[in-house]
Design a protein that fits this description.
Radius of gyration: 16 Å
Distance between the termini: 11 Å
Strand content: 25-35%
Number of helices: 2
Largest sheet: 4 strands, antiparallel
Shape: globular
Order of helices and strands: EHEEHE
CATH superfamily of one domain: Lrp/AsnC effector binding domain/regulation of amino acid metabolism (RAM) domain
CATH class of one domain: Alpha Beta
CATH architecture of one domain: 2-Layer Sandwich
Length: 110
């Protein structure tokens, strides 16, 4: 499967709670698309925030989704105010607080 390109690699799955990160937030971001560099500049800046674990792009009303972790709500508040809101070209931002993980499966029944 590796030689066929099906398996792209191996990775460790980190338990962020065990490392003291108790808060997980999914941020839905709509960008100001009047700037042709909005996507590239936003993505480049978001990559520099260590607490941003995942960046995804979408077609539709929401342009980007960031998965963000924080140690606690005070840490998230500071991160949100100082780093997230400073990201370029944000037209709208919606925060979804992660409550629980119902299903997170990356394996397929092969």
């Amino acid at each position: 499967m590796r030689s066929a390109g099906i398996l792209r690699g191996q990775r460790a799955v980190i338990n962020w709670r065990a490392l003291g990160y108790e808060v997980e937030v999914s941020l839905r971001v709509t960008l100001d698309k009047t700037n042709p560099r909005a996507f590239d500049e936003f993505t480049a800046a978001a990559r520099l925030v260590p607490e941003v674990l995942e960046i995804q792009s979408f077609l539709g009303r929401v342009d980007m989704r960031l998965n963000v972790i924080a140690r606690d709500m005070a840490h998230y508040r500071d991160l949100y105010r100082d780093r997230i809101l400073a990201l370029p070209h944000i037209a709208d931002l919606e925060a979804l607080m992660h409550l629980s993980e119902i299903k997170s499966e990356e394996s397929l029944p092969l």
